[in-house]
Design brief:
The chain has one domain: Immunoglobulin-like. About 10% of the residues lie in helices and about 35% in strands. The chain is built from one helix and eleven strands; from the N terminus they run αβββββββββββ. The strands form two sheets. Strands 1, 2, 3, 5, 7, 9 and 10 form a seven-stranded antiparallel sheet that branches. A four-stranded antiparallel sheet has the order 6-8-4-11, with no helix packed on it. The protein starts with a helix and ends with a strand.
């Protein structure tokens, strides 16, 4: 009987050891879900708002003002799925009678993107969205004034509509940038 108890005890201990299976390594699964992301920010070392004074010239039909001091930049973060790349569109909320507000963007500077497709040349802003930058895939521009896309503006008379220009004390125009699919 003692022999049977001893064999049964050895069997129970052996069975417990075999099913516990502790080894010198183990593993488990970690699931990471990254949501689609579309963030766009205007960065500046000073104010995001630009003030430009038009000046009278001694030359006829020469009313334009270029504003470009490399201080306004677009920063973004984009994570896409399998869908097409994103674009940055731009529009103004209201037209300026007799004047055109034009915008363009320099090439991307900084790190975080492997490729971007197209930067459109100078765009005359209207109340309808227009593509300024296209081909944005997953990436980011790194936060800060020396990263992203430098934005330049040009205010120019619209010869065909310049007669509608009035002496406006001040006219605020809102420029809207949107990161879209």
């Amino acid at each position: 009987m003692l022999r049977i108890k001893l064999l049964l005890s050895i069997f129970i201990i052996s069975y417990t050891f075999l099913i516990s299976k502790d080894y010198n390594s183990s593993s488990h699964t970690v699931t990471i879900r990254i949501p689609k992301t579309a963030l766009l920010d205007i960065e500046s070392d000073a104010s995001k708002n630009i003030s430009s004074n038009m000046t009278s010239t001694l030359e006829t039909a020469n009313h334009s003002k270029k504003y470009s001091d490399n201080r306004i930049r677009l920063d973004l973060t984009s994570i896409i799925g399998s869908e097409d790349a994103r674009n940055i569109t731009v529009k103004i909320e209201a037209q300026i009678p007799g004047l055109d507000l034009k915008v363009n963007s320099d090439n991307f500077s900084g790190s975080g993107f492997s490729s971007l497709d197209i930067l459109n040349n100078e765009i005359t802003l209207t109340v309808i969205d227009q593509i300024l930058i296209s081909g944005i895939e997953s990436g980011y521009t790194v936060n800060g004034i020396n990263n992203g896309f430098n934005i330049k503006y040009l205010i120019k008379n619209n010869n065909s509509k310049f007669g509608k220009t009035t002496n406006m004390i001040e006219n605020d125009i809102t420029v809207v940038y949107t990161l879209t699919h």
